[in-house]
Amino acid sequence: MDHFLALSVFRRPEATASENSWQLYYDALLSIPISLWHEKGFLVREHRNLADKTGTTSLRKRPDYILQFKGLVLMRGEDKNSLESIAKERAELTTKMRRWNVMLYGDLPYILGYATSGSDLQVVAIERSDGPCRATVILDFSVFEDKAGALKVFYNLAFLLHQMAKLTKRSYACNLEPFVPDENEKRKIVLLDGFIERTIQRTQSGGEMDVERLKSVYETLQGLDESSPVTHLQTVEKLSVKRDGVWSWNCLRLVICDFQQSTS
């Protein structure tokens, strides 16, 4: 908390300061609940400006902030300087999200979110939904005009989010581990976190037509841009060709091996 007070006095960002400057300012506020959690052994993970590996964000979208405990996502955040509308940042909390998934949010009726535009801060509840999620504003104020209020909000976040994590039935990590559902002398399928890897063993005596047919199928799937969120089809969002006969997809990866090469 002393760190935040020093930062607020000596390094208060200008209204038009960069997004990174404002993120540092709010990271100082977020350090209040983080330090309280760590002191009590409640070891949360923060993801700031990183490609989202939690599985809660749409492809090619990058969230500003995600807070996670043992695989359970508790809070999301979007930060901008005062030139950006806070309504736009609040909307990004949900437009960047994938469909609500109980494996990632447990049985929580909502998770928390925050959106900023310079010193303006909104704390929201992102409500559970079978369709697009909705962000309902809980608090709306300026951290400069109400510094005491800002300290109270972030101090109490420690207790609220801790209770959310304790009350949900989803209290353990569930990262997708490598799993091999099908393997024979010609192919191997491995389920990994974020994609499927299919390895094809191309023999000297044949297999070229099979490989070309498979490539054609996945190139067709790549063209299905508007696929349903719930589908039995494998969808391909990014296709690239690499050396050594390796074809890579964003959601599905095909590896074509020459005769006597390893299939792993």
Could you explain the architecture of this structure?
The chain is of the alpha+beta class. It has two domains: 2-167, Alpha-Beta Complex (tt1808, chain A); 179-257, no CATH class. It is 30% helix and 27% strand. The protein is built from six helices and twelve strands. It has helices spanning 2-10, 19-39, 86-95, 102-105, 147-167, 208-222; strands at residues 45-48, 65-69, 72-78, 110-117, 120-127, 134-142, 179-183, 187-192, 195-201, 239-241, 246-249, 252-257. The strands form two sheets. A six-stranded mixed sheet has the order 1-2-3-4-5-6, sandwiched between helices. Strand 8 (187-192) and strand 9 (195-201) form a beta hairpin. The longest helix has 21 residues, at 19-39. Mean pLDDT is 76; it is low at 248-264.
Give the tags.
alpha+beta; 264 residues; 12 strands; 6 helices; six-stranded mixed sheet; 30% helix; tt1808, chain A
How many domains? The number is 2
Q: Which outline best applies?
A: elongated
Which structural class should the secondary elements be placed in?
alpha+beta
Query: What is the number of beta strands?
Result: 12
Largest pleated sheet: 6 strands, mixed
**Uncertain parts:** 248-264
- Strand and helix order: HHEEEHHEEEHEEEHEEE
CATH topology of the largest domain: tt1808, chain A
Strand content: 25-35%
Q: What is the CATH class designation of the largest domain? A: Alpha Beta
Radius of gyration (CA) equals 23 Å
Number of helices: 6
**CATH architecture annotation name of the largest domain:** Alpha-Beta Complex
Strand order of the largest sheet: 1-2-3-4-5-6
Helix fraction, binned, reads: 25-40%
The whole-number mean of residue pLDDT values reads 76
Distance between the termini: 50 Å
